[in-house]
Amino acid sequence: MTASLLDRLMDLETAVSYTTPPPEGERPFTYQAGDLPILISAPHATVHQRRQREKGEEEFTGALAQLLAETTGVHTLYSCYRSMDDPNWDRVSPYKTTLQEIVQSRGIRFVLDLHGMSNRHRFGLALGTMNGRSCPHFEPLILQTVKEQFQQTSQGTAKSYEELRWNHFVLNHARFTGGVANYTVTRFAAEQLGVPALQIELCSSARVVERRPLSQWRAPFRGQPDAIHQAVILLQSLVAVLQAAI
Ligand SMILES: [Zn+2]
């Protein structure tokens, strides 16, 4: 099962061009409609620009967003070409304007904003809720879902989980709160649109199937198949419990 899942993610990631600018007249992101009133957003799936500084793509967040849409029926919005702005950082951006249009026209009632972080933080998953403010009624449910998932994970055989600390997660780590002080998608959804939102950061090992040739991250890299599989199950579980609760 894991092998076909990884193949599917590799396939879906080819819809994402990390460094190519969008064709004339097109936007650097794409939207696919779903059936559930939940939107998964991946604004950093491609190279983007923060204060004139180029930032590398958060690999496979675009593939994971598409996979989640395909397997659960959520709506998805993800960057698919190089962005000349930072959709998650800039106060006003075409990405956020589009997200607003989708939320309002499609009756979206929860936004999951998916990001990637490097392995150097030494934890597998960071959840950002603006210290509880972005989804006050859902935070306990989200935490319970993650804890249950990791209990199952740690009963498994893979010793590498501990090395990876994939099952080590943090809530509202100083770097990944979802934006109490800056203009993240999570904050935009919660404060401007009045829709509960959660920022999810996955470490490289739990999302990068295999680094692609045009990646801005130069060194060859392969994530942990089991951790990627668990990450997909966790995202699907979050959708299922949120769907039942909204
Ligand atoms: Zn990001």
Provide an overview of this structure:
- There is one protein chain.
- The protein has 246 residues and is of the alpha/beta class.
- It has one domain: Aminopeptidase (3-Layer(aba) Sandwich).
- The chain has helices spanning 2-13, 61-72, 94-106, 139-154, 160-164, 185-192, 225-245; strands at 29-32, 38-42, 48-50, 53-55, 75-79, 110-117, 125-128, 169-171, 197-203.
- The strands form two sheets. The protein has a seven-stranded mixed sheet, with helices on both faces.
- A hairpin with a 2-residue loop joins strand 3 and strand 4 (53-55).
- Helix 1 packs across helix 2 (61-72), helix 1 packs across helix 7 and helix 2 (61-72) crosses helix 7 (225-245).
- 45% of the residues are buried.
- Bound molecules: zinc ion.
- The site of zinc ion has 4 residues, from loops.
| Cofactors, ions, other ligands | zinc ion
- Radius of gyration computed on alpha carbons: 17 Å
Question: What is the name of the CATH class?
Answer: Alpha Beta
Strand order in the largest sheet: 1-5-2-6-9-7-8
Main sheet makeup: 7 strands, mixed
Tell me which CATH architecture applies here.
3-Layer(aba) Sandwich
Can you write the helix and strand succession as a string?
Answer: HEEEEHEHEEHHEHEH
Integer average pLDDT: 92
Instruction: Work out the helicity level.
Output: 25-40%
CATH superfamily annotation: Poly-gamma-glutamate hydrolase, zinc-binding motif
Instruction: Please indicate the percent range of residues in DSSP E strands (runs of 2 or more).
Output: 15-25%
Please give the number of β-strands. Answer: 9
